[in-house]
Design goal:
The protein has 99 residues and is an alpha+beta fold. The chain is built from 3 helices and 2 strands; from the N terminus they run E-E-H-H-H.
Length: 99
């Protein structure tokens, strides 16, 4: 399954997607988190119905983790773009001052 998110960069709409490796990393992260939370829920109460409800309320959804990873990737892209654009703008200003 492909996870994508569209974002606007300076008036131009772009789409960011997670690679297969990134999706697999998020799935593995979700499994670790889920197991840890399930153990905590089992320690907190003994009734299986309550454990199930408690786990459901505490555990993040896989979709939410995928969206968070996409947001992080978009922010990293935006930060790198700003970093790349800054030297170009500085060079333009320096050229304008020399003329």
């Amino acid at each position: 399954m492909v996870y994508t998110q569209s974002f606007n960069e300076k008036g131009i709409w772009k789409t960011m997607c997670l690679t297969e490796e990134e999706v697999e990393q998020v799935i593995q992260e979700h499994k670790k988190i889920s197991n840890k939370i399930l153990k905590e829920c089992l320690e907190d109460c003994l009734n299986s119905e309550i454990v199930s409800a408690l786990f459901e309320s505490r555990c993040p959804k896989l979709y939410t983790l995928m969206q968070n990873r996409l947001q992080d990737k978009i922010k990293a892209y935006a930060n790198n773009r700003d970093f790349i654009d800054q030297p170009l703008e500085l060079i333009k200003k320096l050229k304008e001052e020399k003329i």
